[in-house]
Amino acid sequence: MKKSKSLLLMIALVLVIGTVLAGCGGNKANNGNAAATNAPGNEGSTNTGTATGDEKLAADQTLRVNLTSEPPTFDPAQAQDSQANTVLKTMYEGLTRMNDETGQAEPGIAEKWDISADGLVYTFHLRDAQWSNGDPVEAADFVRGWKIVLDPNTNPTAPYAYQLYYLKNAEEYYTKKVTDFSQVGVKAVDAKTLEVTLKSPTPYFLGLLSFYTYYPVHKSVEGNPKWATNKDTMITNGAFTLTEWTTGQAIQVTKNEKYWDAASIKLSKIDFSIVNSGATELLSYKNGELDRAGNPNGEIPSEQLPIVKKELPNEFVSKGIAATYYYYFNTTEKPFSNVKIRKALTMAINRQALIDNITLGGQLPAFGLVPPGIAGVDGEYRNTVKDSYFTEDVEQAKTLLAEGLKEEGLTALPPVDLSYNTSENHKKIALAIADMWKNNLGITVNTVNQEWAVFIDNRQSQNYQIARAGWTADYNDPMTFLDMFVTGGGNNDAGYANPEYDKLITDAKTNSDLAKRQEDFAAAEKMLIQDDMVIMPIYYYTNNSLTKEYLKGVTLDFSGAVDFTRGYLLEH
């Protein structure tokens, strides 16, 4: 079959923009507020280089970093937060892995692949790789992992199941319209050959394959639903293995000598402390107890950012990333089911004042969902599709609130619960916004702090009124933000259901006309924000971190996801 002009354009787009995965990120961002000013000379990737002839490695290659919260699980099918992503990237490898410098997918467990002329069939040829117990990594391990993600009987269901809907009949299997998994577009041709059939050409598919939802799982997981919560049952195929997990205190991963590219791994261990205090993390860094601090897995208190930027100019890095900080409205609960009330709350805050006085960084006020840095048809999506979906207008907000309350038969808005996960910076933002709502709209707000796992569970079950959220790109395309809100989506914590929105997303997933596809994205984002105000955008993230000058090889991609696997420590 001849390639259409549009298909060729789509393939070209992949080569130009890359498809960089957040690696969880992409995913639910549970790290603290990423606020900072741009440090001159520190923009761009946090790639600290590779060893040169005159560099001497430290005798102890143990990297020490902090997690602000404990990952609830290391099951690739269940993971959905930046903390789990950070650790999972050290323990697993997909068919591809992302080169954070080039933004391109490169061979991982698949050493090469063939793509059919119509862009629908991918044939992956696996390299000779081993699991940490010495078993060979085989095509069947990928089939097993993907089947678990798509299994509609999994309890709880996989939050990222929709990320596999690009496969032929994947959605149909998940929704039980198809009951035979052999009809889904993935099969092991033999031990070293995996064939994947898509429902339509997907320009970012190779990048998606490095995302943790697409990881393989070892055959030992069968019949053991708790395998990913115990280090003794974790068999991994990546650069490191899980060797210690002290609940609420620390996680340790150790170099996997069975990893196919073990020769490239210089670190012997990575010690992750688990401390949800940014002040403690910063003090530990200054005392030499941590080699790196800050986003995406850690946190630097916002009021300390201007100080550390001056004190440690050679160690501080600030980088704009493709991520958005926002609040969810529970659209399934009155009175937040009323769009006028949601609009009133959204319009009644001052985002720039919040940035200038609370987060103290160089973030950009957000008036949409898709952040800068995400590719569109011609350059960045945000440069063409402006995020002018609403304005900050207190008087208009008061009018809308009064109209919404009248429609709900209320004379005043009852006290509002605003939930956030444990973080000093999230707390500061919540208190500031609560104060704006009180002063501008006369609303009483109760701020509710919850531990991460509890917070996520409550948000997913719509057991909240308003809750903070953050989303980082899983790949470089607007779809990674917009397909969250389809009806019944695993990450649709707002409970939003709009058939018109669903159709726009479906059309964008199957349309090979890039210009029309972008029109669908623009229409969907307008519907989500301007028309229905499902979320309250607050700001587009910047990522702030401190890295000791002796730590090299750690990379940060455009979405803010960090990769520690190729890091190393110099003598110091």
TrEMBL record:
Residue ranges under compositional bias (Low complexity)? 33-44
Major location, coarse class?
Answer: other
Q: PANTHER family, per this entry?
A: DIPEPTIDE-BINDING PROTEIN DPPE (PTHR30290:SF79), PERIPLASMIC BINDING COMPONENT OF ABC TRANSPORTER (PTHR30290)
Q: What Gene Ontology biological process does one annotation of this record name?
A: peptide transport
Q: Member of which family? A: Belongs to the bacterial solute-binding protein 5 family.
Q: Which residues form a coiled coil?
A: none
A GO MF annotation of the entry reads: peptide transmembrane transporter activity
* Source organism (scientific name): Paenibacillus graminis
Q: Which InterPro entries match?
A: Peptide/Ni-bd, SBP_5, SBP_5_dom
The listed locations are: Cell envelope
Q: Signal sequence span per UniProt? A: 1-22
Provide this UniProt record's keywords sorted from A to Z: Peptide transport, Protein transport, Signal, Transport
| All copies of domain Solute-binding protein family, residue ranges | 105-492
According to UniProt, the name of this protein is: Peptide-binding protein
Report one GO cellular component: outer membrane-bounded periplasmic space
Q: Where is the region Disordered?
A: 33-53
